[in-house]
Amino acid sequence: MAAPGQNLAVVVHRAGDLRLENRPIPEPGPNEVLLRMHSVGICGSDVHYWQHGRIGDFVVKDPMVLGHEASGTVVKVGSGVTHLKPGDRVAIEPGVPRETDEFCKTGRYNLSPTIFFCATPPDDGNLCRYYKHSASYCYKLPDNVTFEEGALIEPLSVGIHACKRAGVTLGSKVFVCGAGPIGLVNVIVAKMMGAASVVVTDLSASRLQKAKEVGADFTIQVKNESPQEVASKVESLLGCMPEITVECTGVQACIQAGIYATRSGGTLVLVGLGPEMVTVPIVNAAVREVDIRGIFRYCNTWPVAIALLASKRINVKPLVTHRFPLEKALEAFEATKRGEGVKVMLKCDPTDHNP
């Protein structure tokens, strides 16, 4: 057990080397706040950095604290901070622009090439007891929104950004590929935005059961069907081809199925990230005017997500299936790697393990 003054942190040193270490408690700058962390979700990217030491061009060169789905309590504020005070419960947006470039000026700050982002090399994340962050990117949680819901705003934001880019609206028919945490938040958000019916595919029966629980109308357990066969199953379940497909796996066959499944004139949004090069039926998409859009994280989603959670219009609580104290982080990472449950939550405050 770490003494209260210590800052226990989950640190990846290189591929396969994950450690629990004590770090100094940071001092907040003028526009920063120091947080006592409460709940931090484990993301697939955290596991990937631990297992492989890199994601694409982002390579772990120096020890890095993991974690970016997080909430906590303000314990100290910098001299320039006016909207937060010690005791405030906050959700953390992990991406903070370092400069006001043209992307920030147009409101698409997630595309700023120099952005700071928790647990993306070389930037440290917040899977620790104490963490400092830009005050502007810490959002006060209403009393009726739990710390865990606050931490889940990060994955939820991916769903909000993806469904906005997809143009989900009243009556939309939507196909979601993949029923992991990101597929599930897309189901939740698509239904919230007025989708009439949502069909979800996955390999795992238990994940598809969870998709049903959070609002999916139809599910398809994929065995060894071809992408075209998956597309025709989607069409027969919906009664028509979906106008919108949200691809959350990054798997080549799923992207192919996404193109074949989408109605002519519709939109395919690519959320999942796989290999850099994939073979897809691009001519099929082109001649049918299927728009293919990418997303990179999210922007301007935290206030929306907090409003939805506070009004009880959406429920993300079923996503959390496992909880571990910070001291057992290595066990938690092993469980996540094995694909157990949906979202694994680490509890960083030894005095408060409540949701």
From TrEMBL:
Localization (cell): Cell projection, Cilium, Flagellum
Primary location class: other
Alphabetical UniProt keywords: Acetylation, Cell projection, Cilium, Flagellum, Metal-binding, NAD, Oxidoreductase, Zinc
Protein name: Sorbitol dehydrogenase
Family affiliation: Belongs to the zinc-containing alcohol dehydrogenase family.
Positions of the Enoyl reductase (ER) domain: 16-346
Protein's UniProt keywords contain NAD: yes
PANTHER family xref list: SORBITOL DEHYDROGENASE
PROSITE patterns xref list: ADH_ZINC
Pfam families, alphabetized: ADH_N (PF08240), ADH_zinc_N (PF00107)
Domain of life: Eukaryota
InterPro entries the record matches: ADH-like_C (IPR013149), ADH-like_N (IPR013154), ADH_Zn_CS (IPR002328), ER (IPR020843), GroES-like_sf (IPR011032), NAD(P)-bd_dom_sf (IPR036291), SDH-like (IPR045306)
A GO cellular component entry from the record: motile cilium
Names of required cofactors: Zn(2+)
Molecular function GO labels: L-iditol 2-dehydrogenase (NAD+) activity; zinc ion binding
